[in-house]
Each structure stands twice: as C-alpha cells, then as structure tokens.
Amino acid sequence: RQRTTIVWIANRDNPLTTSTATLKICNTNIFLYDDQSGRSVWNTTNLINHNINIKESLVAELLDNGNFVLRYSNSKSFFLWESFDYPTDTLLPGMKLGWDCNKKLNKNLTSWKSLKDPSSGSYIFAIETWKVSHGLILDQGQLRYRTDSTYSSFMNITETEEEVSHSLKNNTTNVSSISLLQMSYSGLLRLMELVGEEMNVLLHFPNDLCDFYNVCGDNSYCNFNNEDSNCACLEGFQLGHDQYVSSLTKTKKRCVKKSYSSCHKKEFKKMKNMKLPDTQYTTVETKVGFEECQKRCVMRCNCTAFANMDIGTGGLGCVMWTGDLVDVRSYNNTNHG
After folding, report:
1. Distance between CA atoms of 86 and 97, rounded to whole angstroms?
2. For residue range 63-84, what is the model confidence (pLDDT) as tens digits?
3. 3-state class (DSSP) for residue 198
4. What are the structural domains of the chain?
5. Which residues contact 121 (CB under 8 A, 6 or more apart)?
6. Would the CA dihedral through 234, 235, 239, 240 be positive or negative?
7. How do residues 110-145 score in pLDDT, each as one tens digit?
8. Residue 82 Cα distances to 46, 95, 255, angstroms
9. Where is the signal peptide, in residue numbers (predicted)?
10. How many angstroms separate the first and last alpha carbons of the chain?
11. Contact present, 121 and 112 (Cβ < 8 Å)
12. Where are the beta strands (DSSP E) in 3-108?
C-alpha cells in the first residue's frame, strides 16, 4: 500500500469537530467550514494581490506539484493566493522559504507538535536575512542549529533586494522521485526522497553534538571524533585567565584574542574543513577577490577572519568577520570548505 505523506495542512491549529467539512469560495477568498458547527475554521484572508476583478469567476485548484491555488478561471499562471506561500512543516520542489519583499511574507517551516498531532510544534526552520544567508533551527525561539555547506549543496540560495529565499535544487534525474525538506517534531531537519512508495532520509541536521549552535563558545571550534566532542581555541586565540564560558557539558575558560605589537602585523592561519563562523557581524564585498580580501582584513584592526563567499569555487566575493567568531566546527572529511 502506498504510503501517505502529509505536506500541508490549512487549519492545523484550528481542527474540525467532525470528519466532514465544506470548502467554499466567497468574496474572492476560500473558506473552510465545519459542517457540524457551521463555523469557519480557516480562510484565505491574507490576500496580498490588488486590483482583484470580482466579475471574473474564481477556481480553487490543487496543482500537480502540490500547490493549492486560488485563481481566475481564465488564467492558469496568475494566482490570487497559493498554499506555497504558507508552508506547514515541509518544503516541496517549487516552494521558497525566506523573505518575499513583494508579498511582505516571511516563510518558515514549523514542526508538528508530535507524531500524530499536526498542530504547531516548538521547532521552526527559518531563513536569516543577512547578507550571507543561512537556515536556522529554533526551539521555542532559542537558536539550536545553523546550516553549513552541506545544506548549500542541495538548496538554491537567492539574496537580492526583492527576496532572500531558499529552495530545493533539482539534483535528481529520476522523474518518479520527489525531494522534500521537513522540519520534524523531534527537532531534526530532514532531507528526504520519495521514490514510488518508499520514503528515504538522505540527510538530517543536526548530525552530531558539534552541530549544535556555538556549542564550544566564541572564538573556539568543536571537533567530533569517534562519538566524542571536544573544544579548542581557534588559531590566534588563547584561553583567558579569568574569563569562562559554558560549552558542551561543562564550564571552561573563554578563548580570547592574542595580543599583537601592531594591528597591521597580525597573521592569519588557513583552516580547512571548517564551518564558517556566523555571518551576523560581517562585511561583504561581492566583487573582491581572495588576495584583495586578505589585504583589506589586515588593514582593519577589528578584522578577525576572512573568506571567499563561495568557498567551493574560490571565486569572487569577500566576507570579513569583526569581533568574536561564533559557531565554528571542524569536519573529518573534505566535503566542507
């Protein structure tokens, strides 16, 4: 028997009292009515399109890609409303997460409350809107995980004035397979592939203890070996004498910057197979190459690290960090920057 995967729920936080309901189009909106009570449990009042022609007949349609849309009967491509703008816990091909300036929408994934309860849970996968965008897992508002280069390998990331969005890449040649990204009720972000009747989990995040956000504290990195995690200061930093920070399962001394005789005489150490620090406090120069990036960082006394924007290609784009370096880890393979 074919397995059913629920990918979207209209009224997840306002359930029906019985198993029967009626869907109606009224005044250019879709309404879902509980047949027993007669009350509306869901509707599409958040329309952001203007100049709606009320004389044209409207159609509600479930498209082959899973998008439930409200459109004019004579228009196949213009949607007055679409479910892809209001995700539940699952990202489908063709959907986008993140900020849409034109529609004034910030689209996130919110987990189910439990395995059998589809109401909103405590885990949210959100897209940060800084100059170098990442995905974030939050648990009741607390940051738990930030995505790395593995995530970027299967996601399209767009950063413009109109939108900061993440969408699934079409990496498969199998026309019968569908890729899904799901924020699970257990707190795992899972990349899955549905092939026929089989659902396979390809990747999940967090993957180990070092994946948790800034687990070792600022200016240090986490290393995971043989099911064991440990922390170390980054090059150019050392343990402070009287500064402490909570990391992993204990409190340890905080890593602080080593002193230099001159600001412009500082040296940089190349570190491979590392997760880049959080990019909240960075300067981004999109048309600057690696060598020029290094020169600019050396000349800035508060610059603590620099990197290409696209580590994989080594092309243009300069990111310079100022202040503390946050949420860094090492990897034991060469598939990371």
Report:
1. 9
2. 999 999 999 888 888 898 999 9
3. strand
4. 1-86 (2.90.10), 89-207 (2.90.10), 209-329 (no CATH)
5. 89, 110, 111, 112, 113, 114, 185
6. negative
7. 999 999 999 999 999 999 877 788 999 999 999 999
8. 10, 10, 49
9. none
10. 43
11. yes
12. 21-26, 29-34, 40-43, 58-62, 68-72, 79-82, 90-91, 97-100, 105-107
- Amino acid identity of 269? K
Neighbours of 60 (CB within 10 A): 15
Side chain identity, residue 10? A
Residues 6+ apart with CB under 8 A from 204: 188, 189, 190, 191
Q: Across-strand partners of 148?
A: none
116-153 b/e with 16+ CB inside 10 Å = b? eebeebebbbbbbeeebbbbbbbeeeebbbbbbbbbbe
122 vs 113: CA distance, rounded Å = 7
Closest CA to 99 of 85, 112, 81: 85
Q: Which of 225, 150, 141, 226 is nearest to 181 (CA)?
A: 150
Verify cis geometry, omega within 30 degrees of 0, for the bond prior to 15: no
CB of 82 closer than 8 Å to CB of 69: yes
Residue type at position 116: K
pLDDT surpassing 50 at residue 182: yes
| Phi, psi dihedrals of residue 87, rounded to the nearest 5° | -65, 155
pLDDT in tens, 201-229: 999 999 999 999 999 999 999 998 877 77
Element (H, E) at 149: helix 149-152
CA 307 – CA 320 distance, rounded (Å): 7
